[in-house]
Amino acid sequence: MQHCQSGTGHTMGRAVPIFRDLGVGALCLLVSAALLWSWWKSSPWVPLLAAITYLGMAGLILASVPCHWRGLGWANRVTLGRGILIALLTGTLAEPDLLVRYATPLAALALLALLLDGIDGWVARRTSAQSDFGARFDMELDAFLILVLCLALLLLGKAGPWVLAIGAMRYAFIMAGLKLTWLTAALPESRRRKAICVWQVAALMISLLPIAGATATSWLTGSALIGLLWSFIIDIRWLYRHAPARRPEDYQTGNHS
């Protein structure tokens, strides 16, 4: 968790509402996972993986949320709700057969997560609660949902290992930024970036449905990959052009001059 200049007791007092938000989210996840587990008659690994996913997300939230915040706010609570849905979807990776038997309900969960992706931003604007943390929270959930859907397609045998390139590209970009620090600069707002993200989720989600045959899946996932590559090329080119002047050795060390 980020350190505040105030005392530990005061810091913990401010953190209590955030723990409460995360606790409510955990309760919602547990109830939902228990109901789905009973309905699907799945193995205990499904709710366990969903719970582990949520705990990891909660830990990252606590490590990243500004230390002066009193609660997450309604916009981030909506995003947290989307995170709960994504955690439930992640749990199904422990038993891929569920993706076949309950393709329509799971597609509905993914669709709801996609719809909430627009609602949290609307709530943030209406309540004047836009923040860097909220934007990052939203973006990282998008990236993780895409990775989960790619893994689901691979486990079902509907796409080859290459489909993981769609889900892994964001994380490869982050790893590259550890060496080439100019890649970590803030990018301007982009409707193109958001539209491509929505198409990726939609294309992967449709590909998981039984009605999507091999040809349709190849076209859908291929278009998602091409669109993502195009978007990354545009962003990397923009970052390179707007990066501070660099010495030749910066290409090796990744340090700004």
Automatic annotation (TrEMBL):
Query: GO cellular component annotations, sorted alphabetically?
Result: membrane
> Family assignment?
Belongs to the CDP-alcohol phosphatidyltransferase class-I family.
Record keywords, A-Z: Membrane, Transferase, Transmembrane, Transmembrane helix
Q: Which InterPro entries match?
A: CDP-OH_P_trans (IPR000462), CDP-OH_PTrfase_TM_dom (IPR043130), CDP_ALCOHOL_P_TRANSF_CS (IPR048254)
Source species of the chain: Halomonas daqiaonensis
What is the superkingdom listed in this entry's lineage? Answer: Bacteria
Q: Which residues cross the membrane?
A: 22-40, 46-67, 74-93, 99-116, 137-156, 162-183, 195-213, 219-240
Name of the protein in its database record: Phosphatidylglycerophosphate synthase
The keyword Transmembrane is assigned to this record: yes
MF terms (GO), sorted A to Z: phosphotransferase activity, for other substituted phosphate groups
Question: GO terms for biological process?
Answer: phospholipid biosynthetic process
